Backbone:
């Protein structure tokens, strides 16, 4: 594990946030309004790629996923740098495994300028630090950077992108980046959870996705983990039950999910979780379909329908070994 731009910014806001990202990401709860802003930012960034005309995008995903293939992106970026491509988007750089992908890299007569795109109306201090991290990585890769810009949104669709020169400020953070990147790298690898008292860092400059975990105490943390666990089981069962082509092995797996969910549904823990939800004590971004009586009932009914269809099909085909899928 090394440090990416996102890792660095989150770790500098709160080291515990970074540690949880690496060791307990399942505790993460992203409120819907935050996710909407993230999605809008991604859309703005995609549109900004063409602000200088034709460009080459370096993004490569691992097969069958939306996870960036960093090794492939690094290789593709190097090929385009060697080819002298005028505008490179999502250009990837790595130094001692510390990594960044630059929104827009634009060739100049003496080297390159780069542009960090932000869906905001003005430049914020954290944006400059964000760009500073990228400058630190790129410069250590021996690529000459001239000017650095933050691109914010303009006043209207006729002027959608406004570059703001932050070269002096961003380059001035070089030593600050170097002083902290290695400490964060070591910290994120330690097995023991980082202890940090809740404070202003929980919401400044961004609201932490582990807010409920850190502010709720041990019982609330345990409750959130439990709800997320059974929510995942419910989703997996729903996906299986929605298919009409399940194998016998998959039915066996689904039967195990049903057993766990029914056990939870009839437990004291489910009643406690349901009550906490009714009283508004759970993080509002936490997915909790498993706390809906109708939600569980509907999925279990769909599963039972699939079992009946499976048994009927086997009986028509002369197979008599399907009884272990039916409920006792």
Residues:
């Amino acid at each position: 594990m090394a440090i990416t731009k996102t890792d660095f910014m989150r770790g500098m806001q709160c080291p515990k946030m970074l540690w949880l990202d690496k060791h307990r990401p399942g505790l993460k709860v992203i409120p819907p309004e935050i996710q909407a802003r993230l999605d809008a930012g991604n859309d703005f960034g995609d549109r900004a790629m063409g602000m200088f005309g034709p460009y080459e995008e370096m993004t490569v995903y691992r097969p069958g996923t939306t996870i960036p293939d960093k090794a492939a992106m690094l290789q593709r970026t190097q090929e385009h740098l060697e080819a002298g491509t005028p505008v490179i988007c999502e250009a990837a750089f790595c130094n001692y495994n510390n990594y960044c992908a630059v929104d827009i890299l634009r060739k100049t007569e003496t080297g390159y300028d780069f542009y960090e795109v932000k869906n905001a109306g003005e430049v914020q201090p954290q944006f400059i630090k964000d760009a500073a991290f990228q400058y630190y990585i790129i410069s250590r890769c021996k690529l000459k950077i001239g000017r650095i810009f933050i691109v914010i949104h303009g006043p209207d669709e006729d002027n959608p992108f406004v570059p703001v020169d932050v070269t002096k400020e961003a380059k001035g953070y070089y030593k600050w980046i170097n002083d902290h990147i290695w400490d964060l790298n070591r910290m994120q690898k330690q097995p023991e959870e980082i202890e940090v008292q809740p404070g202003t860092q929980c919401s400044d400059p961004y609201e932490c996705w582990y807010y409920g975990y850190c502010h709720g105490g041990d019982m609330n943390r345990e409750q959130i983990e439990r709800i997320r666990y059974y929510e995942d089981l419910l989703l997996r069962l729903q996906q299986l039950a929605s298919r009409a082509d399940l194998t016998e092995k998959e039915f066996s797996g689904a039967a195990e999910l049903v057993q766990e969910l029914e056990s939870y549904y009839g437990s004291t823990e489910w009643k406690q979780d349901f009550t906490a939800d009714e009283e508004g004590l759970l993080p509002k971004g936490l997915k909790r379909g498993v706390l809906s009586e109708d939600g569980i009932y509907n999925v279990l009914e769909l599963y039972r329908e699939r079992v009946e269809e499976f048994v009927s099909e086997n009986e028509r085909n002369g197979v008599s070994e399907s009884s272990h899928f039916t409920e006792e």
